[in-house]
Amino acid sequence: MARRKVANTLALAVLGLLQEKSMHPYEMASTLRERGKDGSFKINTGSLYDTVQSLVRHGWITQVETVRDGRRPERTVYTTTEVGQQEFVSWVDELIRTPATEHPKFMAAVSYLGALGPERAAEALDERAGHLDRQIHEARQMLAETVGSGLLPRLFMIEAEYGLHALEAEHAWTLRTSDEIRSGTLSWPEFEQTDQGWAWSAPAERKDAP
Amino acid sequence: MARRKVANTLALAVLGLLQEKSMHPYEMASTLRERGKDGSFKINTGSLYDTVQSLVRHGWITQVETVRDGRRPERTVYTTTEVGQQEFVSWVDELIRTPATEHPKFMAAVSYLGALGPERAAEALDERAGHLDRQIHEARQMLAETVGSGLLPRLFMIEAEYGLHALEAEHAWTLRTSDEIRSGTLSWPEFEQTDQGWAWSAPAERKDAP
DNA sequence: TATCGTATAGTCGGATCCGACTAATGGAGG
DNA sequence: CCTCCATTAGTCGGATCCGACTATACGATA
């Protein structure tokens, strides 16, 4: 699979918006924020203007006009090209089809959970679970309001459903793991200082399985 | 919460390794890969040397010596400072405690699932589910082998358990959503070209709930 | 009517990231 | 004993990203 010319997801958002109508960058940012898509895309004005430039360079979008409203600063308006439209669809297709290995910060931290010691680790996990719980409730309520009211077809909020599902899974794992630490199911190996740093002595593995 | 001086997770990996013993960057990379931590950290030699430099600048690690083995290129060996050790623990603590909003590519793509149309969307989701299924089996087997053999305490593979759990959740959602599309539970609004781009006509919302 | 805050629209320089490259060594195979 | 390839160890320049900043306009308020 050949590497994509423009790989950041903000470019996908730009292409998606220009599918609907032509816009200037500032409007893209505010539209995305209005629609609550800032959970799916990292919207940073600096990056946005760079991304737009890069899309222009690759011929996926073009400048339509530069209008000046009153004495406000000029706005440069863009549209997709035909290439850009095809690229958009095939990119979405590929992103859905083939899972990409992401590197979430949480997983990085979990791989050093041992460094906290059992008590602090369990406590930290519980605190996380609390935050996640709040986020889950917010997400549920947001979905209920927006979709339930019939303002927007459910398909247009489907990524929020995915986000909620992911949150719930993480919440479940977090709580379960903290329980396992507290109940001793997940045991802490003992660390010892050696000449060359730290080593662990694994808790004796019992071989009493049938 | 004040912004961290060094924020990328590769730095966390470096600090973690130097907790055990002093190392030169190349050894860090190969150790991480050997231990299969390349799922949790994005290991790129270029970034690694930059990260190490940055850690030195902030006083979290220091150069111990530069050895030359035979006529091989010089290796520069590093250790953590006391500040670095404290920073490491408090960073892990923070990363566990407070969830950070990540922006996975999949979620970005899902938010434009509509662009594929129902058939192609369902098909793409199924293909993803297939890939995920394979990854899940690999992960399960790897865990069974490594932990089951007692070579390594379970705590040291805990992030793989988390990864597996996340994969399973994503797999479940992917399959469920593809089912919903096929069964019509998740309906596609009809798109219409208007003067200014595309608009959708929402499928009639039935108000026949009790 | 002077001023304060907010919305509009975008620029810029430095930090970070990453892939592609260099260069030497040790060992396997013919 | 010559060649080829994998391993060891790291450099470098360009691409990307991002936060902090500028500058104008509009509306509310004192």
Write a compact overview of the structure shown:
Two copies of one chain form a homodimer. The first copy, chain A, is mainly alpha-helical and 210 residues long.
Kindly describe this structure.
Two copies of one chain form a homodimer. In chain A, 54% of the residues lie in helices and 11% in strands. The two termini of chain A are 47 Å apart. In chain A, a hairpin with a 7-residue loop joins strand 1 and strand 2. With 210 residues, chain A is mainly alpha-helical. Chain A is elongated. Chains A and B meet through helix 1, helix 4, helix 5, helix 6 and helix 7 of A and helix 1, helix 4, helix 5, helix 6 and helix 7 of B. The structure holds a DNA duplex (30 and 30 nucleotides).
- Categorize the overall geometry of chain A: elongated
Order of neighbouring strands in the sheet with most strands of chain A: 1-2
Helix content of chain A: 40-55%
Report the portion of residues of chain A in β strands: 5-15%
Average pLDDT across residues of chain A? 90
CATH topology of the largest domain in chain A: Arc Repressor Mutant, subunit A
Structural class by sheet pairing and helices of chain A? mainly alpha
Per CATH, the class of the largest domain in chain A reads: Mainly Alpha
How many domains of chain A, as an integer?
Answer: 2
